[in-house]
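Many introductory courses stop at the sequence. We go one step further.
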Amino acid sequence: MGRLQGRLAFPDRPLPSSPVPETQGRKLVFVVTEDWFFASHFLPMAKAARELGLAVTVVTRVRAHREAIEALGAKVVPLNIERRSLNIFKLGDASGQLAAILKAEKADLVHCIALKSILLGGFAATLAGVGRRVYALTGSGFLGARTDTVGRLSQRAIRLLVQGLQTNRTHYVFENADDPKLLGLDPAEARVTILGGAGVDPEALKPAPLPPLPPLKVAVVARKLWSKGIDVAVEAVRAARAKGAPIELSLYGAPDPSNPKAIPEETLKAWGEEPGISWHGATQDIAGVWREHHVACLPSRGGEGLPRTLLEAAACGRAIVTTDVPGCRTLVRDGVEGLLVPPGDAATLSEALIGLSRQPDLVARMGEAARARVLDGFTERNVMDSVKQLYRSMLAT
């Protein structure tokens, strides 16, 4: 498939779900900082591994999602991993603990998710003598956020660290074709796989009739972080309403207290008291959100892999307005599934929303195109078959 650049692992036909000799009974260990992160984004990978007959262990900081992971037949091993710190000494201590876990689990393959886990798991796998490693970068984060001298030096240091932790049986997984370059990799090379994000279940998330217009109802469903551009969406809707445009903005999601980019709750509450703006907090009813809204908005400042919130909205047949940054533009083609605007540009975002508020037929067509886009390589089954192909090839050598 040529839809995404790089080595797409989406097979032309479904892989068999029955275990095969090279995978039956082999052991896969995931390393991920938070159990909620694994439960919200990576359960399809665990399902894929179980379909292959792999024994699966997830090493993570355990909060409230242990049961959801164990329900798939996976084992959960607690390890306290601080997300906010890349302190090399703390990493070394945690890597020693993780190496002991990998030895005890007799791991055949280690799958490390996100930069912190790649560094931690890479050190641990080296200590434990595990050569088969999957390094999955789920977004560029600070690697792509700074372009000054300090930022470039930091990027180079991280790149060298990761390269020092690779073996001849290390494979890299990304969610867009831009991020491999941050680690000095060509997205087209054989050891790189580009996945369609975390994947969504198109049977669980289906299109519903659009609500009546006006007003144009816009929703931002995301963790409440400054990096997600929530403030840009608020400013854009303020400006649109000041011009008389009938637009309403709903904010769904909670601040992440462990993230330094979290928006204070007081700020969210203040925004929610403004005319035409409401903050609803976290929600589990994603389908319900999109039944009540016309447009999904994510004015991300960058650092995304491939935002799950956009996949969910697209599966529900909603037009998308997002920024022209890696990950977001992987899914949304400007003028097809939605509109792309420059990051941090509230004025352009405002004009885009005003334009959609005047063109209900366009909103509907973009929503239909977004649904079709998801079905063409971004479903949960697409991701599972991709991962199964990857694991089988790695365990065959």
